[in-house]
Design a protein that fits this description.
This protein has about 280 residues and is of the alpha/beta class. Helix content is about 50%, strand content about 15%. Helix 8 packs antiparallel against helix 9 and helix 8 crosses helix 11.
Length: about 280
């Protein structure tokens, strides 16, 4: 039985993981949490807090459920004292890609991140349909990277990733740079920005006097259908009128060189900012 120490176990991400670990017979889990609010949240789950030094002395695996901006500092403090063969699991590629993880040949770094439940899923249970993040009721895919360590450790890391993000469908194996291209570049820098602008447009249309519920229903319904069309899922093309609207509006909304946000050199700058920013709870 592997012993897992969860750093930041009472935080927002930490709590999602602990719910899937606490009753799993394959792992002995120790919960490390320094904040009073986090400790109170663990107490509500009936989970005891283990002092950091005690937990790390026992751990075969350490999960870093802490903000990206703190990972470098925390790792510099704890990595020298870890037992040989310990695996550290990060939940985001930023720290690994930014190069803030201390080098030590006899430990492994594994990185994993959820894809979250797909927008076009087959969930029929209402609770699963409203599981926006996954890791509870809704099935999801995940991505994984063995950032550093022997090949045999990939299987160990993926097994834990499947546990903490359960229920899991596919586990896609990538390298750390590929994960960083997906996040932050694709889904935060690009997609979140576009969706934020869409939300601002919805709010603007409502301010123009249209009924709010009608606007939201119309927009979100068309967003689903349009996404399915654009990603070749419907068997139908975009209408000629819609295609014309896109061609005329594209240059007004987007810079011609917008794809630069996906260039590796810009992604590296982005993760440097993320991992050295001031942490916020």
């Amino acid at each position: 039985m592997s012993t897992i120490a969860v750093m930041g176990a009472g935080g927002k991400m930490g709590q999602r993981l602990t719910r899937n670990l606490k009753d799993n017979p394959d792992y002995k889990t120790l919960y490390v949490e320094i904040s009073e609010a986090g400790q109170a949240s663990l107490a509500e789950l009936g989970l005891p807090v283990t002092p950091q030094a005690e937990a790390l002395a026992q751990a075969d695996v350490v999960i870093l459920a802490v903000p990206d901006a703190l990972i470098g500092k925390i790792c510099r403090e704890i990595v020298p004292g870890l037992r040989s063969g310990t695996m550290l699991i990060g939940l985001d590629p930023a720290a690994g890609y930014a190069g803030v993880l201390p080098e030590r040949e006899d430990i492994s770094y594994f990185i994993t991140h959820p894809c979250h439940p797909p927008i076009f899923g087959d969930e029929t249970d209402p609770e699963a349909q409203r599981d926006w993040f996954g890791g509870d009721k809704a099935k999801q895919h995940i991505v994984c990277s063995l950032h550093h360590g022997p090949e045999k450790d990939y299987a160990r890391g993926e097994a834990i990733a499947r546990t903490i993000y359960a229920p899991v469908m596919k586990a896609h194996r990538l390298n750390t740079e590929q994960m960083a291209i997906l996040e932050p570049a694709l889904v935060e820098t690009l997609s979140l920005t576009c969706i934020t602008i869409c939300r601002e447009a919805v709010d603007e249309v409502i301010r123009m006097g249209l009924p709010e519920q009608a606007v939201r229903d119309f927009f979100l319904g068309h967003l689903r259908t349009t996404t399915a069309i654009v990603f070749d899922m419907t068997g139908f093309p975009v209408s000629d009128g819609a295609r014309l609207a896109v061609s005329e509006a594209r240059s007004q909304i987007f810079q011609p060189d917008w794809k630069k946000v996906l260039k590796v050199e810009n992604i590296k700058k982005s993760v440097q900012k993320i991992t050295h920013a001031t942490a916020k709870d």
